[in-house]
């Protein structure tokens, strides 16, 4: 049997072309994910710098000023220092749980960013259950904290992990009920994109903030508690628990907990923007300046850029409120924290859900 050399060369060229297409497809699939991770990293660095500057202003201090212009590279310098520090493992602890705990806390929060729409055409995964996927994934983070506390073989760390689990359960239920109220009454969908588009008709007056004011307040308090921010930072109250579940950690593993707290704060702020503040939509009513609503029709790139800017502006406004709250209010006791969640926020969110469903049934 005689095989033509030209045919063999064509077959080899075709196989190389197919391999190149597969490789190109994999690279193109990773580009949005890596871009999102890069943007999240920059956002966290900005939040750390903002918190130091705002806290310095509140306490009449100077704040960071030497690392880079206006001290903006201070967070990067701290992260580099933690990378090169020694990782110490407790001799009698469970090293597997001790090492896996910080990774679970960070990865579970990073996955939540996949359903956040930063603009009209900029969302990694538009799912029908997007909001509830965030709640389900965020429920995994306290498991990592509990594993870290148990694996440390330290009663202070274990107590901090138990506090983290109790606090997360107490405040996730009201938070979920607030999200359910929005899905049932306002948007009839759990997709984050649909929720934003449902608020786009009347500009500022179309926000869910005015339709669900009780839900907004409950969501605001619950999200701060979920992020373990003051006045709800009982799991890592360094004055009482010697830093809680972080007591035995050092180096990059301690840095992962530090990053996880700011990642959680950023994702909570983004969800406040998406659920209650109209997302990427311009806040001016259509009847006043109708020309501004033609931005998305001018060009996809320009409209997406404007949408990202509006989303981040609203997000960092909420971040400013969260940072100011941390450096203004004192810490709650553990009994006060649990009473606030179970005896006040839970009945309030249930009543809000009952009012929402009742009004929807009457409108049919």
TrEMBL record:
Its GO biological process terms? aerobic respiration; photosynthesis, light reaction
The protein's assembly and partners: NDH is composed of at least 16 different subunits, 5 of which are encoded in the nucleus.
Q: What does this protein do?
A: NDH shuttles electrons from NAD(P)H:plastoquinone, via FMN and iron-sulfur (Fe-S) centers, to quinones in the photosynthetic chain and possibly in a chloroplast respiratory chain. The immediate electron acceptor for the enzyme in this species is believed to be plastoquinone. Couples the redox reaction to proton translocation, and thus conserves the redox energy in a proton gradient.
| Enzyme Commission (EC) number | 7.1.1.-
Instruction: Please state which protein family the record places this protein in.
Output: Belongs to the complex I subunit 1 family.
Enzyme class, first EC level, given as a word: translocase
Name any one GO molecular function. quinone binding
**Protein name according to UniProt:** NAD(P)H-quinone oxidoreductase subunit 1, chloroplastic
Q: Does the keyword Membrane apply?
A: yes
Membrane-spanning intervals of the chain: 26-50, 97-116, 128-147, 256-278, 298-323, 344-362
**Cellular component GO terms, alphabetically?**
chloroplast thylakoid membrane; plasma membrane
| Topology in the lipid bilayer | Multi-pass membrane protein
Q: Which UniProt keywords apply?
A: Chloroplast, Membrane, NAD, NADP, Plastid, Plastoquinone, Quinone, Thylakoid, Translocase, Transmembrane, Transmembrane helix
Q: Where in the cell is it found?
A: Cell membrane; Membrane; Plastid, Chloroplast thylakoid membrane
The record's listing under NCBIfam families reads: PRK06076.1-2
Chief location: membrane
């Amino acid at each position: 049997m005689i095989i033509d050399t030209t045919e063999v060369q064509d077959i080899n060229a075709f196989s190389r072309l197919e391999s190149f297409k597969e490789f190109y497809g994999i690279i193109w699939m990773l580009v949005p994910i890596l871009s999102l991770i890069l943007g999240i990293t920059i956002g966290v660095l900005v939040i750390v710098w903002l918190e130091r500057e705002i806290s310095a202003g509140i306490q009449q201090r100077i704040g960071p000023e030497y690392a880079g212009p206006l001290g903006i590279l201070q967070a990067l310098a701290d992260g580099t220092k933690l990378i090169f520090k020694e990782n110490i493992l407790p001799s009698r602890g469970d090293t597997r749980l001790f090492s896996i705990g910080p990774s679970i806390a960070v990865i579970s929060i990073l996955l939540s960013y996949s359903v956040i729409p930063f603009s009209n055409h900029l969302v990694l995964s538009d799912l029908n259950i997007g909001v509830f996927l965030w709640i389900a994934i965020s429920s995994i983070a306290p498991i990592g904290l509990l594993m870290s506390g148990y694996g440390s073989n330290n009663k202070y760390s274990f107590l901090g992990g138990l506090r983290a689990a109790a606090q997360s359960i107490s405040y996730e239920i009201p938070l979920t009920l607030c999200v359910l109220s929005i899905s049932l009454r306002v948007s009839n969908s759990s997709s984050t994109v649909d929720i934003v588009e449902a608020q786009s008709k009347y500009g500022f007056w179309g926000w869910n903030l005015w339709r669900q004011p009780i839900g907004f307040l409950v969501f605001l308090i619950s999200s701060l508690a979920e992020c373990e921010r003051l006045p709800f930072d009982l799991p890592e109250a360094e004055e009482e628990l010697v830093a809680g579940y972080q007591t035995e950690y050092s180096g990059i593993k301690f840095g992962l907990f530090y990053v996880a707290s700011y990642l959680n704060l950023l994702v909570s702020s983004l969800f406040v923007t998406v659920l209650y503040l109209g997302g990427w939509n311009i806040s001016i009513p259509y009847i006043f300046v109708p020309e501004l609503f033609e931005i998305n029709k001018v060009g996809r790139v320009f409209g997406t850029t404007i949408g990202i800017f509006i989303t981040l502006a609203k997000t960092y406004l909420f971040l400013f409120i969260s940072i100011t709250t941390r450096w203004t209010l004192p810490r709650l006791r553990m009994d006060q924290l649990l009473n606030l969640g179970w005896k006040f926020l839970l009945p309030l969110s249930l009543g809000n859900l009952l009012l929402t469903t009742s009004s929807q049934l009457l409108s049919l």
